[in-house]
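pinging the channel bc i need a second pair of eyes. not urgent but kinda urgent?? the chain im working w is below, pasted from the shared doc
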Amino acid sequence: MRLKKAFCLLLASVLTFACLTLEAGAVQAEPEADTLSIERASGRFSVDVSKQSTFTADSDFFLDVGETVTITATYTPRSASVDFGLIAPDGLFYSLPGQRGSFSETFKIDQRGYYTLAIRNNSDSAVSVSGTVTY
């Protein structure tokens, strides 16, 4: 019995000593500058736009202030008057004209929200448009 008490006392002393000598600390992880990733999405489109009408994409995408959207496209007939752009969260169509059957521009976003790709045909005949949008 005496041996059992001595063993329990020894074990309690070892545990107490171990608990008192443990060091606790916290480490703050710093993000590495070379691991920053920017996610981009890209999609292809091909559409016929009727004369004097505007095509709007079926889906929209969320953008934040400072992000960019690049629209690259070709269209026929090359002589047609076609505007390419985005419908912003405020409902306005921000656009630029194509020239001689092609368009390639980058739009810088200044409003946070959902945007929709839009193509306006200002001509008196239908146009066939194909290209990519990257955001």
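so Strands lie at 42-49, 53-56, 61-63, 68-76, 82-87, 93-97, 102-108, 113-121, 127-134. and The first helix runs from residue 2 to 21. — does that match what u expected or am i reading it wrong
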